[in-house]
Amino acid sequence: MTSPQYIRNFSIVAHIDHGKSTLADRLMEITGTVSFREMKEQLLDDMALERQRGITIKSHAVTMHYQYQGHKFELNLIDTPGHVDFQYEVSRSLTCCEGAVLLVDAFQGVEAQTVANAYAAMEHDLMIVPVMNKVDLTHARPDEVREEMEHTLAIHAEEVLGCSAKTGMGCKEVLEAVIERVPAPQGDPHATLQAMIFDAVYDEFRGAITYIRVMNGTVRKGQKIKFLQQGTTHEVIELGHFTPRRKATNSLAAGQVGYLICNIKTLDKVNIGDTVSVATGEPALKLPGYREPKRMVFCGLYPSDGQDFKQLREALDKLVINDPSFEFSPETSDALGFGFRCGFLGLLHMEIIQQRLEQEADIDLVQTAPNVTYEIVTKTGETMEVHTPQDVPDQGDIEEFRQPIVRVSFVLPTEYIGGIMKLCTDRRGTYVRTEYLSPTRAMLVYDLALADVIYDMHDKLKSTTRGYGTMDYELLGYEPGELVRMDILVKGERIDALSIVCDRRDADVRGRAVIKKLKEEIPRHMFEVPLQAAIGTRVIARENISAMRKNVTAKCYGGDISRKRKLWEKQKEGKKRMKSIGSVDIPQKAFLAVLETGEEEGKKK
Ligand SMILES: Nc1nc2c(ncn2[C@@H]2O[C@H](COP(=O)(O)OP(=O)(O)OP(=O)(O)O)[C@@H](O)[C@H]2O)c(=O)[nH]1
Where is the Tr-type G domain (predicted)? Predict the structure, then answer.
């Protein structure tokens, strides 16, 4: 058993693409944790989807050994997800560390998530080892980046190490700085067991694999343990380290990081942030900071073909086993029939789940536009949480309509400040402050409605700043807003799945934009299809899709039958993601038409 004085627990925090995974690979290589042959690019990002998207979604951990000044050190590297949707998991992972390597790209410099991550590490009282990566780049600007780090992150420029995770230059020094600067874990191996669950993954054969950091005491194979939050007891079947493959040991003691396998069949029985202690006798105190994952974004998922409902449920059940932070419950829509209301941590999380569904289950889905959770106080004094615009009561019954507000930090070259300020002002953001990181880069902070941020703020930021701006946000709370439910009527019928919540002052512009988009997306029919947007009984926009009789094969002059067949096939494809409502065929894309903000139109005028 390694004495705590020779253990170092740390993570690498960085903005996306600053080279976290590459550095992790390099450290594993230096410590001989993986042989060259075994070493695949980006070993830590081992989920296929993570690799596809090039981002780290789930935290992982790896134990490395390194001989330094006559002692064998055990170095536990805990990987943290870099995206704002997974902030809670980041915070749990950081609780398990005593130090963090703060990695900054020597060309890009300090970005929004660098600041957010550095603050998170400081909040957890971690020793920060500042490192500038990619110094091999010919256009690297090390002096300016050092200055930015000193200025924004309260780090002394002379403490900043330089390395190239790509060439390996300076990486050994990073490892040694971790040993020298990061404190050894505290904790008593003879005390009552107290360990933090910071992650869990699902293995088809072994069930839930729980990642833990032992704070106090020792956990042994065969021991009966208790998850204090969940209140369940289990027997430890296997435990060990990740090297990065699982390597079984007999015990894990205070200060160590590793895994537990306890014959747990589903991941929803394992809560990230929960405390593991003894099943018999007086358990240890619960570790602070536990909270239920909060779903911020919701959307409806419906099978295009009602027959697929059961299949969709099975696919969703399977997904929840792997990712309990995603939730779903059945809902019915007059327009779309039977489907599910699904809750996600954020927009990226939603995209990931959708991709998995499409990859793993062959079902055609209709997805409704995403929305945030609203809080409504009714005239009768009741407070309700609303996850779907359909559930918003009539205007007359609402006393107060509240929405989530977030504090958004943008980091960008100073020449784009004006553009982003305008973007935020157009969305009724509240200006908080501007901080200059250097003469050419600044951090701009605004409070905005989450609904205005999640849909397209990231895309807008990228286009306004030619890709140079980055952003990050944190939830501030709920605030009353001038919100209304806008309904869409197709052929006089309200399509519940098309209702949205928007600011009263934007309603006219948005109503017109949505109706215009719907007119483009809904194909012509044999009859006229009137489209209307309405608030309560007041119609705010209308358009007609005129009738048409269309014979698609007519163009082929009756000749080539194979061409005709191709056209028919194509038509069938087009029908796939279509939903027949009343007598009107509405394609999938139309359900997202409600995301139209009308901003583009405003600009053209
Ligand atoms: N030139 C150069 N490129 C590097 C260096 N380190 C990483 N890169 C490249 O930078 C890109 C991003 O590196 P990753 O290691 O995937 O970045 P990451 O921070 O793990 O990204 P996320 O997982 O998305 O947070 C890759 O194309 C790497 O090859 C370096 O030292 N020099």
Answer: 5-186
